[in-house]
Amino acid sequence: MNMRDLIPWGRSHQTTPSRYRDEGDPFMTLHREMNRLFDDVFRGFDMAPFGGVSRMASWPHVEVVDNDKDVRISAELPGLEDKDVEVLIGDGVLTIRGEKKSAIEDKERAFSERTYGRFERRIPLAWEVEEDKIEASFKNGVLTVTLPKSAESRSEVKRIAVNRASEETKH
Fold first, then answer.
1. What is the pLDDT of residues 133-171, one digit of tens each?
2. Where are the alpha helices (DSSP H) in 45-170?
3. 54 near 43, Cβ under 8 Å?
4. Which of 92, 116, 121, 159 has the most beta carbons within 10 angstroms of its beta carbon?
5. Closest alpha carbon to 144 in 101, 58, 82
6. Where are the alpha helices (DSSP H) in 13-82?
7. 51: phi > 0 → left, psi -120 to 50 → alpha, else beta; which?
């Protein structure tokens, strides 16, 4: 058997292998579905398949700002609205969760690098906060949660001087 007979795009017609979508080819459909299945499984473990870098690892991306009065946590949630997001606090952990839904059907999609599905980000808090005064706002795809610090967390911090090591202690 000739090796060229095994290559599907070289047999009967001039089709290039770069052609992504071929609805009539059940093997390409199976190939795409298997790739999607593996991507979905590994996305659930917050890691990419076969050692790659996951797009969903620790998503949404957050920024934590700590000042004397409060802690502000901002999370980037592009493409979402406030009704798609839930914010919870309990046992010293702030939880941001929700779902990003696709606006189009899978059968219409030829190719996509966008990520859809449920997400949850848990952020441990190193500060005592006044839970009844927590505020959350959502604007332009950014969720901002303001957590006022309790009186105990606002206590004075003592600065510790760092001394240069003497030449005798160096070896």
1. 999 999 999 999 999 998 876 666 667 889 887 666 555
2. none
3. yes
4. 121
5. 82
6. 26-44
7. left
The runs of H, that is alpha helices, within the chain are: 26-44
d(CA 13, CA 27): 17
How high is the pLDDT of residue 68? 86
Q: Which residues pair with 73 in a beta bridge?
A: 64, 145
pLDDT of residue 137: 95
pLDDT at position 110 is 78
Tokens, residue 2: 């000739």
Residue type, 86: E
pLDDT attached to residue 60: 87
**Residue 60 CB burial class (10 angstroms; 0-12, 13-18, ≥19):** buried
Report helix, strand or coil for 96. strand
Place of tokens 């606090």: 89
Checking 152-156 for CB contacts under 8 A at 24+ apart, the result is: 152/128, 153/127, 153/128, 153/129, 154/68, 154/69
CB 58 within 8 A of CB 122: no
pLDDT tens, residue by residue, 51-101: 444 444 567 889 999 988 999 999 999 888 999 999 999 988 999 999 988
| 11 vs 125, more confident | 125
Helix (H, G, I), strand (E, B) or coil at 11: coil
